[in-house]
């Protein structure tokens, strides 16, 4: 029975581990902030680039099953990524800002990733942002506040999953705690038996001899909060496609166990916060490219593989059209840098007394 799905209902995941015919290899893709218009806008943008009015479908929108789900939290009509991530990971609504706990902020709830681990499957949690960010953390952490990054990192170690990937840790030395003399998370993950790989090439060198692995971006990266936007990407930057490929490769060391791999396109949300449509569309396409890697695996194991693609919420209230019967998305192809990337260039030029207009020609 082929189990390739574009679906958002958590209960569908929950029955994987109890029904008679089970998916052995489960992919769970989450586009953070990726609402319907983010997806439709991307497809219409792709269509306009081909000179037509209409859509050029993404791979995942061609999957055979689709539905919708509400994402309000237990305490707010508008959710955040922590509460939404907890709902997607555990099936429990919680308070905004909370991870892996009920709305009392104390009662722990386990995720589908933990269920898979307890069942004997290999487990991976990955993202284009930091490994301790809200959405990935919802699959392994139990914290009342998502910004407790050091404690989230400790939960990552305690969860003992096989593979983690993202840009880096946000607070590896617990700087947020006044007077803290905490041991570095890098030291603690090493003590816990994890190998840290810095970039995809380093992963390829270390993966074979590693029992557990954390893939982070190269040490030369200037921003530890996320890998670069697809539109800003330069040679040597780590990509979500590489992260997905590494996750599949590492979890496939023993295919007899089966695996669960969560992959988050975390910067769709960030681009939406900036109201940066071109960057949003490139991020959606970038996540679709990562899904293609999972699809390649599916083609090799069609009767045992489930691919789930969903979003935690919509961000930015993106609107396609504002009155006139025109939609010139093709104009966005002229944009070569994200809003945040442009801001950094402008600031650098001003600080260096450079000719801004010449730099941006």
What does this 3D model show about the protein?
- The chain has 361 residues and is α/β, with parallel strands linked by helices.
- It has helices spanning 10-14, 36-49, 81-90, 112-119, 134-137, 149-159, 185-191, 200-206, 240-251, 267-273, 277-300, 339-351, 356-359; strands at residues 3-4, 25-31, 122-127, 163-165, 194-198, 212-216, 259-265, 305-311.
- Strands 1-8-2-7-3-4-6-5 form an eight-stranded parallel beta sheet, with helices on both faces.
- The chain is globular, with a radius of gyration of 20 Å.
- The relative contact order is 0.19.
- Residues 1-20 and 356-361 have low confidence and may be disordered.
Sum this structure up briefly.
The protein is 35% helix and 12% strand. It is built from 13 helices and eight strands. It has helices spanning 10-14, 36-49, 81-90, 112-119, 134-137, 149-159, 185-191, 200-206, 240-251, 267-273, 277-300, 339-351, 356-359, and strands at 3-4, 25-31, 122-127, 163-165, 194-198, 212-216, 259-265, 305-311.
């Amino acid at each position: 029975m082929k189990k390739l799905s574009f679906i958002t209902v958590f209960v569908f995941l929950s029955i994987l581990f109890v029904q008679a015919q089970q998916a052995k290899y489960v992919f769970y893709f989450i586009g953070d902030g990726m609402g319907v218009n983010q997806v439709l806008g991307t497809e219409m943008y792709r269509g306009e680039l081909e000179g037509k009015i209409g859509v050029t479908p993404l791979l995942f929108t061609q999957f055979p099953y689709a539905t919708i789900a509400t994402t309000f939290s237990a305490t707010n009509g508008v959710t955040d990524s922590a509460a939404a991530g907890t709902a997607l990971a555990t099936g429990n609504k919680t308070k905004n800002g909370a991870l892996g706990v009920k709305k009392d902020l104390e009662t722990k709830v386990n995720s589908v990733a933990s269920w898979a681990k307890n069942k004997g499957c290999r487990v991976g949690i990955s993202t284009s942002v930091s490994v301790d960010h809200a959405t990935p953390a919802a699959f392994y952490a139990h914290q009342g506040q998502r910004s407790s990054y050091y404690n989230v990192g400790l939960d990552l170690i305690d969860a003992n999953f096989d593979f983690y990937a993202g840009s880096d840790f946000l607070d590896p030395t617990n700087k947020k705690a006044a007077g803290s003399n905490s041991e570095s998370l890098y030291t603690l993950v090493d003590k816990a038996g994890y190998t840290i790989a810095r970039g995809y090439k380093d992963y390829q060198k270390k993966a074979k001899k590693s029992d557990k692995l954390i893939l982070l971006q190269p040490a030369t990266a200037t921003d530890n909060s996320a890998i670069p936007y697809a539109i800003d990407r330069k040679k040597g930057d780590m990509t979500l496609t590489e992260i997905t490929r590494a996750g599949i490769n590492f979890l496939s060391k023993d295919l007899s166990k089966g695996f669960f791999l969560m992959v988050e396109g975390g910067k769709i949300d960030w681009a939406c916060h900036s109201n940066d449509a071109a960057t949003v569309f490139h991020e959606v396409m970038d996540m679709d490219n990562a899904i293609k890697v999972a699809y390649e695996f599916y083609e090799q194991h069609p009767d045992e593989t489930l691919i789930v693609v969903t979003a935690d919420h919509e961000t930015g209230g993106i609107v396609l059209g504002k009155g006139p019967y025109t939609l010139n998305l093709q104009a966005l192809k002229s944009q070569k840098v994200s809003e945040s990337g442009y801001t950094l260039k402008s600031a650098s030029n001003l600080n260096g007394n450079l000719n801004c207009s010449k730099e941006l020609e």
